[in-house]
Amino acid sequence: MLLKGVKTKSITFFTNKKDHEQAANDLIEKARLRNGFNPNLILFYATLKYNGKYQSMLDIFHKEFGEIPQIGASVDGMIFPEDMRTDGAALVLCRDDDAQISVKGVNEKGVINSAEKLAGMIKCNNGCIVLHFPLVRVPSVLKSAEFFAKGYYYSKKCRGATIENQKEYGRKFAQYCDNDNIFYLPPTILEIFAKQTGYSVPIIGVNVMHTHVRLNSPSIFCNFKDIGGGIAALVIEKQDVNTIYDDIFSEKGKTMEETRRNVSNEFTIIKEFKAIFEKNVLISLDGMAPVEAVENLIYATEKKKEDLLGNLEKGNYNLNTPYGLLFFNKKTNGVFLLGIGSYYPFEMFPFYVNVSDYSNDVVLAYEFVEDKFESFISGLIGSNHNDKFVFFFLDVLVVAAFGEKVFEYKDKVKQLLGENYFGILSCSPSAYIPLKYQRRNYLSEAGKNIFFSSGGTNACLEI
Amino acid sequence: MKINLEDTLDQLYDIEGIEACMLYRIDGVPITIRVPGYREHLLETMFWLEKHISRVLGEMNREGLKETIFYFRNSRILIAPSSRSTVLVTVAKAEANQQLISLETLRATKLIEICVT
Amino acid sequence: MKTGRILTGVYGLDKLMDGGFRENTINSIYGGPGVGKTTFALQYSLFGLDRGEKVIFVSFEMSERQILRDCKDIGWGAIKDYVEEGDLKIVHIFGEDLEFPSLDITEIIKKSSPGPNPRIVIDPFTYPTFYSDKEKRKSLSTIFQDLRAFGTTVVVLEEPADSATSTNCGGDIHTNRLLSTPLYLSDTVLFLQNLGFGEMYDRTIRIMKHRGSKHGEGIYPYSIESGLGIVLRASKKQIDRVMSKTKFDDRFVQAIEKTRTMGKPGEKLAVKIGSLRKNWVLDEDPQQILDLVLEEEKKSYENKS
Q: What ipTM goes with this model?
C-alpha cells in the first residue's frame, strides 16, 4: 500500500512461485504496476526455497532498479500488511527523501576481520545501523567435513589434557571457526561497530539463521549481490529514527545474585554445572562433554544425531529446542541463553557468543512461554508508530512455541502498526542500544549496552 | 486481498516440500487437486488416500480433530479441516520443513474457509 | 454454440457440457430431495419457452396449479402466460394409472404436445420403473427410444433415501437397482447433491455422463437464486480445463503429416487425429499418445501391406 503524507513510504510485493526466475519476474511485474514510485532503498528477503538461486533473482532486480541501495537475507518468514508467510520472497520498495541511505557489505576471510573492515567503511552520526550477518554459516559439503574433522581433532586432543591445554585447544578451534566464517558472534560484532560510531548510534544485528539447516546457508544480500556468509550494513542517517529492543525475560539484577534469583523465578532449573569454556567454545560441563552431560536430561540428542548424520543435505536438521544453558555475565549481570539440544558429532560445543566474561557456573533450564505470546512482539507495543515505516525483527522461535497461534501476530501487528511495515522472522535479533534508548534493564545484556540471547528477543526501527 | 480458492491451492502447491495438495469435501469427494505429472511414489500415496479418505474424514468429524498426520512411504500427509464441509490435504516430502508446511497449510485452510463460507 | 445442441438454461452449465444437451437425447437429472431437480427441469423449460420453443412437462407428483405456484415463488410467474398461450403443456399423471408404461407415456406425450420437437420434461421418472419390474429394462428402453424420436427430454430421477450412492456422489450407481437402469440408458446424467452445511461446495453438480461430448469431470458448486434459478459457479480454472487447448497444435499437425505414408488407413487416422486436436483439453503434451497411436497404426499397416 502506498501511503501519502508520510516520510518513509514502503510497498511490499510477495511471491511464492516455485521457479526462482518466475518468482523474480512476478515481483517485478507487481512492482511495475505501481509506476511513479521511485525507491531509494530496496529490501529483499527470501526463504530457503530459492537457496542457491538468489543471485539470479538479484540480477533481475538489479536490471530493473539500477544502482539503488539494497539489503536482505535468506530468512524463515516475513510479515507484511497483506499477509504472513514462511515460504517465498518479498521485495520491499522504500522511499525516504529525508534520509541518507547506504548499504555496504564485505565477505572477507575471518569474521572479526570482516566486521572490522566493514565498520571502517561506514559512518553514521544520527540514525541507525542495521547489520545482517549469519549467526552460523553452514558451508559446503567439503567445508562442513573440514569443520567436523577439526571438531573431532580438538575434542580428541582435549581428552585427558589439563584444563589449560583444553582451553588452548578450545581457543584454536574458536580461531578456526572465526577464520572460516562459521560462527559470527553478535556481541563481538556489535561492539566493533558501536566503537566505530562512537557508541552514539543504535545498531541492530539481524542474526540470520534457519530453523532447518541446509548446506551453503544462510545468505546475505548486499547491493544485488549474494555475498553468502558475509556481513552487510544498512546505514540510515536521519533524525528521529527510533530503535527499540526488547526481550521476553524479566529484568536482570543489580548484582549477580539478584540476577540468579530472578532467573530461578522465571525458569525451571534442571541442573547446575561447572563449565569450562574458552571464547565461544564450550569444552565441558562437570568434566563431561557438553552434549553427553545433558543428553539424559533433555532426551532429544539421539533424534538430533540421526537428523544431522542422515538429513543435513536434505535440509531436515531442526535447530529448535526448548532447553537452554544459562550463562551469567560477570560484568553486566545479564544472562545469555544458549539453546542446547543441537548435536555435534564431537565433544566440544562451539556456539556464537564469546563467554570469556561469563561465570563458570551455568544452569540447564527451560521456560514455559505459553503466556508470553505478546512478549515476543513487545517492541511493537506501546510506541508511537504514526506515519513511520516500521521495520522489525522477530524470533522465529515463536513458530515452534506457538504453532498455529502465530497467525494471530499478523492481525495483531496490523492493528498496532497500520499499513506501513515489514518484518522478518529469523533468529532472535541482537542490538547495541545506547542507554537513553533502553526501556528497562534487559536480562539479555551480553556486553555493555549490547543485547543478545539465542531466543526471546525482538527489535524494530521506526523510520 | 481478494481471496480465490484456486489461487490459494496454487500458492500452497508452490510451497517448497509440498508434492501435492487436494481439497476434499467432507464426504470424500475431491473438489480440486494439485498434483505434478506422473510420479510413481505419489501415485501410491494417492491410491492410499482414495481408499481411506472418507473414513478418515468421518473419524475427524466425529472426534472433532483439528488435524491428522499420516506418514506413508516417504511422504507426510497432513489432513486439516478447512471448513465444516471441506478438508485440505497436503502431501509433503518427509524431509521437508514440516513446521513451516503445517503453518502454511493452516494458513491455506483459513483462506479456504473464507472462500467457501 | 455447437450445432445440434439444446441449451440447458442453467447458467454456467453449458460451457462445461460442450454447448448443452445433444438434440433428441435423454438427459437424467438425479439427486436427493431438495437439491433442485424440479427447479432444473422448470428452468430448462422456461429457457426454451422464452426462445419460442414448445415444452411438455409431465409431472407425476405436482399438479399444474402447484407447479405454477412454485414458479411464481421463484420469480417465474410469467410461465403462466405460456400455459395460456399453449406453448407449455403441463400433464399431471398418477403413476398407478399407467397400465402399459412404455405405450402410455409416449402416447400421452405425443397427444399433449403443443408442437413439433418440443422440450420434454418428466418429473419424476420414478413411477414407471416401480410399476413395470419384470420387463423394466426393455420397457424403459422403448420409452426412451420413443422420446428421443420426439424431442429432447429432461428426466428427473429421485435418489431414494436409503440409497448407497448418497455419500459418494453417485459414483456407485451399480448398487442401486431402482436407478441404475434409467441412468445407464440415458445419454446424459447430471448428479445434484446438497450436503446441508450451508457452504460453497454443499450444493454441487457433477456431470456423470454426457455421450458424444466432452464435459467437465469435477464437481461444480451451484446456488439457487430467485429469478434466475440454478446458477453454476465453476471457477475460471475449472472451465479452462474443459476448453480445447491450441498450444500443442504443432504436435497434431506433425502427426497428421506422418499419416500420409499409410495410405487409406492413414487418411482415416488423420481424421481421428484431427478430431483429437479439436477436443484436446489437457495441459499436458499429447506427444506420447500420438507416438503410441502412430506406432501401432503403422505396424498394423505394414503388416497388412
A: 0.88
